[in-house]
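Model it.
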Amino acid sequence: MIYRLKESLEFRLNFYYVLAQGLFWMSVCCTISLGSAYLTNRGYSTIGIGALFATAYLLATVIQQVVSVLTDNSTSFDVVDVLAVSGLIFCVDLLFAIGTSGKGFATGFTFLIAAILGTIMQPFINALNFHIEKYGVKMNFGVARASGSFFFFIMSLIAGNAMKAFSEKAAPVLGFIVCSLFTALMFWINKELKGVSKNIEEYDPFSSVEKTDNYYDLETIKNFIDKYKMFFLFLIGLIGFYFSHVLINNFLFQIVVNVGGDEADTGGLLALQAIVELPAMIFFFKLKERFSSKSMLIFSAVFFFVKIFATTVATSVGMLYFSMIFQAFAFAIFVPASVHFVDEIMEDKDAVKGQAFITIAMTLGNLFSSIIGGIFIRAIGVVATLWLGTFITLSGVIVTFYALLKIKKK
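Modeled.
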């Protein structure tokens, strides 16, 4: 392996990219995924936690668009530079977070910045794969992304148990360590790529449409909705069933505590979710050979409902572990299937718009679930809120089922 690292640029960059995915998802685990446990131990209510998550998602969506446009149009910096600078800011923020204590402004603010950065960086870490390919290097994105889930699995176990054994500060400490390694790796990748001649056009990772195609224009959006009515009905359903995914993830600690668990159990449940995602990610193209993306979306929507129903009726940590297994048939299939689904039903010139609207629908699901979940858990309790989420998810599944059956391939 050492010899291949020295002699093969392709092997080296693939290895670095696997590490980049792994370190990034470890930092997400320490900040966003364990955020509820971290903030609860600092004295924040579920309303405050929900508000912080909602604000982070909303600001991240806006900033993400600005940064992507600047990156697209810049000749002085690229995807690697954005990730390196974001990682550096991430490190500084987590360093400040380690020094905070209690339910102070600094605690909430440093968490907010970390959640924003973690959300902003996700499309850029995926785009890094295709950016490297433009240098003539053959990349294996599937293996790298699956490795990210495996690294997340490891960190979930470590961080959850460390928070239980020591304090909630274990999350930002571990986050700072992996984020520092990630940032150093970005600078190293940048150095490697500078030594490779790039003899093809500059890569634009966020847009495959003409720069003159202003798809934020109201008239353009109206025409797009008229053209793909059932697709927009599907998006309404998506907001419904995605609600449950965010509700469980953002308030997993409260759900665990409600059945007698703690931080270690929360980490273990996050770890299980990550590990069961691997088969679908690795073998998705095998599934796609046998099933249409539309069929897989219907299948995944049903299992979003099954997962939250199993979570709602759970009365022990063991039953929660059982409910998390359904992540393998819900979120793990939904993400790749939604990407391919857009390509199957839309003309090439509309595909980017379609992906943008799916992202918007997921963002709305995030916002609604964060706000409603935080308020209702405080007002009526965990179980009643989960039943509400179950009803919303079931409604979303029914709408999704109807819309997808009406949609035809292009």
